[in-house]
Amino acid sequence: MAPNLPNLKPGDVVAGRFRIVEIIGSGGFSVVYRAHQEDMNRFVALKVLKPTASHDAKIVERFRREAYFASYLSHANTITLYDYGHTDTGLCYIAMEYLVGNDLSVVVQRHEPMDLKRVWKILVQSCRSLAEAHRLGLVHRDLKPENIFLTQREEQEYVKVLDFGVSKAITNIGDAGPNTMRPLTQEGTVFGTPLYMAPEQAMAEEITPAVDVYALGHIAFEMITGHAAYERCTNAMDVMLRQINDPPLALPDPWSGSPFSELITQCTQKDPNYRIPSASVLLDNLMAPEFDAYADPMEKPSRPRTQALQAVAVDPADLLDDKEVEELYRWELDTLEATFKECQSTNQPRLVVIRGVPGSGRSNLLRAFLRRSRGADNTLVLHRGPSAEASETSLETELSVLTGKALQGSGIVEVKRLLMELYGEDQELAFSADQIQRDSRPLQALSSMRDSLLARISGPFRALAKRRTLVWGLENLERLDTLTLAFLDRFFRDLQADPKPVMLVVTVDPDELGQRTGLARYTESLLQAGRPFARQMHLVTEDEDEEVLATQRMQAIPEFVQRDGSYVGAGLSDSEADDEPLTQRIELDETPQDSSSAFDTILGYLAQLGDEVPLDLWKLVYARILSTDLIRVADMVIHQAEKFGILHVHDEVIRFSKPGFAETLRQGFEAIEGVKAAHLKLAELMQQFYNQPSLTQVKLIASHYRRGGKSAQALNILMDQGEMAFQRLDLDSAREFYLSVQKIVESDAPPPSGWGLEEAQIWLRLGEVHGALREHGAAEDALNKAMRTLRLDDRETEGKANKLLGDLAVYQERYTNALKFFDKARDAYRVMGSNRPFVAITNEMGRVALLQGRTGLAEDLSRQALEMAQRLQEPLLLARVNRQLGGVLTRRGRFSEAREHLKHALSIFESRARDSDTVECLIELGQAEFADASYADAQDHFRRAIGLAASHHHNSLHDANLGLAWAYAAQGHVAEATEHLEQVLSRVRANQDRQRITEVLLHLGDARFAAGNLADARVSYNGTLELAEAIGLRRIWVAAMVRLAYLHLEEGEEPQVFKALGKALSRCEELGYTEGQLQVKSHVIYIQLLLYGFPPSGETFSGLLQKEEDSPRVASLTYLFRADVAAARGEYANALSFLRYAHVSAAQVGDYTMFIPIARRLNLVKDAMAQPVDPLTNGWGLGAMVPPEVGRRRFDRLPKAG
């Protein structure tokens, strides 16, 4: 290991989930690895602090901030952060999206001017990323070519903005409060890179989003000219002085006449007050008509039509032929139709994503296609339109169509009840927060219940698709609720794994979608999906008439000021901008109120309702809130604002063309007279108007109550909505509501009267939701804040927080820490006298001890829990404790006892329809029966687990499938095992699950090896090697290489045997994989002895055992080999002892397939000693450390003793 690098090698696992594959980069403070995330089946870039940096508190804090800030950014042009945290050894890590490509510095270092179309595209995408950050109150501060990464998407260059490590929060974002946002450095400290540093940044003055605009101006200059503006300066101080004193940049010839020159000048103004203020405003400028010659049509939003085409309904009575639509979208409709025919002919799913802004015609295209599809044979069309009520834009609409049941628009609770009827279940699917909090594994329970709900919702869709083709159209993906988005992501992935003829067609505005924080986890797979399953369609309108173009050129939105105080808008020439303010050019009727004030006030009221406002809501504001003076001019203001491109009115909706202008109006609204009363009236009116408000609408209503002086009302609304979202398992929405509550509580300290919840309890809830969403770093931060803010006598919150921290530690394989947290939680519950959580946590401590390999302690803790649970007589708690104890006893080799406890647990789980618990208990019972040589019983329980897990898409399906293959092979039914594994392989390949493909390939190779099909076995093992190396599965890689050595042995290729083993040994030494080295050495010694007929003396297994006393896996293997040597020499008593030791060691690590070769040898030795034997085991142990024994290794009998 090189100095000052983390002690990580390929195959090492960080935080229990990230398996290291290779180093891909190294910087001053950190190393970046390519790693494979086991639980999500994806490659990630794992950024790890170097050891020396880990001891510097400021560097660690900056590293944490990069993760913290990036976790709130979800735009597609920003690198996605998956998780962050630290290990027990102090290793700090950030798991991010793994990108392939180069950063912009690689391009600009060639010192060649770049094509202006490429420059425009890179600037636009960079602005989109930064606009989200600026909207959240976050400034990058270190924007430079190295932090603009160029990758590929859909065969097009695509920008990802990187490294928010030195970012500055200019407002509290997310759940960040005053403590979180405390200054990282001393006042006056400068952060950034001199070549791209704004003057105010160099002088350590106030930081605003304009510093990022300044950096983009310099980056644009460098891209266009091929040289950085001040690259000839010899030191950083000279560069900074020039940044402060030189005039703004202007492009030299031949680019001086291009619109980029003026834009760069505006970006690099020295005074931030006269600079383009933010990335969103810069983006508006790049979209102006003067840049049309350089614009990529795929990047530039289509201009809205003067009149929207007639909406096409899906009801048969309304599906009239629309020749205009058919003619306009002839090519797109043909593409959609061809995709539909593919779906029908192949019985495979298809997804088409239609990208475009509202008004681009995307909805008309979708509706025209649905009209065509309705006439197709054996096809059902479902459609979600944009103008339905909230209750009609959920999954209920589609489910009611599929089932013929009318739902009453009462949310996901009705969906649950419907599903209960469909599946013939008696129990309620709803749950209570208290039930989850008391559960022995609350985070696992939440994740499991949510996964189960999503799987159940897919049932009616999948059932229908067995009989006919389903076409499902969804408009406005950017506005769908998070639970529906989560379902679509899950449904599409499931369809690829288990294909059905379902065609999903969605419309989306990617920019608007990107403004919704935290949704990338669900939408990324849809928006990046490619062939053969998906098509991405960019809707661009190029042939607008001149009248529309003229209207667009007149768009005049004041966004920033020049030195003379005049306004400059994105679509105005200098002469127009200097002439007079926009509001003075609009002709209003004479009123007692100043026309400019009326214009701002009326549009300010409109902006208070959101960026997109239902026309009916505006009519209510018009009638109930506006003063008489404002009512007189309101229609004229709206008309003029639409004429000048500020507003766009269509489909019964008023939409601000530029959200940045709407935000400016909202800020200016605070200056009107009686603003508090206005906010309260708006809050009450919006609350009445929206029966089922969206997350955005709820937050807006709460904001009005807060600004109206009723913070307690705002908090209660947000908390109620958060609890409702939590109850319906919409965890993403719940998180956003809780974050909003936390922000208000911290900002308005002390809490307002009428608000009863304490800060620690909010942090606790946030930690729970973050953890259930697998955001472990954010969860741990929230729970630690809960611990810091709780009252000393609040034992309940203390117990819950420590329990959840323990759960997180278990997920990250930090078992020592987990036991400490659980012990603290037990103490809190002991003081409270809360017996049930005390018992549940004691049981969990037993599970952690088992994971540590401390089976004795695990049994002690589980028996303590069982004794207390029997006194409490709570069935589910008793079932969980019995199941845990059964697992412990299996590992301790007491299989009959284990089976009894597991059967008792299973009967309770089944009687209460606890599907997830039932699946896991069935698998564990099957394993105990397999270990007890009751292979037929094991086969039955594995089959039952497969049936239940498949119907509910349970994560344990894979374990059940492998268990069934074990049971087949153990009984000698190799053909059945092979056929089953081939079916499993096709499913996991369809799902592109690398780890499971690797495991199945190894087992399939063993089944083929056992059947004597050596050629096919070799193919399976080589495939295993390739995949295992790609994702860092070193244990499986070693197992496959060892098996290839035994294949050579069966084929009589002795030199190749030792060549393969030598390669395995070298690889283990290179990786520092000690256990693997000892296993390979055991095989080397064994094969050497085997080739020489087990000579009467000499073997070195004892030395290997002494080297690795803490490895039961190595011990099991070497004891087995020693037993073979002893048996060959007629030392049967020694052989029996070695086999018993091998059995105990294999049980310790749960390697039950090793019991098969052990059992065969036990029977052979007992038979030779004339002792009673169990029925002879003639099968094979698939996946065991010993490859299937065939040919010269397949001992059928031994000489009789004496």
Automatic annotation (TrEMBL):
Name used for this protein in its record: Protein kinase
Annotated InterPro entries: AAA_16, Kinase-like_dom_sf, Prot_kinase_dom, Protein_kinase_ATP_BS, Ser/Thr_kinase_AS, TPR-like_helical_dom_sf, TPR_MalT, TPR_rpt
Positions annotated as TPR repeat: 879-912
GO MF terms, alphabetically ordered: ATP binding; protein serine/threonine kinase activity
Annotated Protein kinase domain residues: 18-291
Ligand binding (ATP): K47
PANTHER family xref list: MITOGEN-ACTIVATED PROTEIN KINASE KINASE KINASE 20-RELATED, SERINE_THREONINE-PROTEIN KINASE NEKL-3
Keywords on record: ATP-binding, Kinase, Nucleotide-binding, TPR repeat, Transferase
Keyword Kinase found: yes
Domain of life: Bacteria
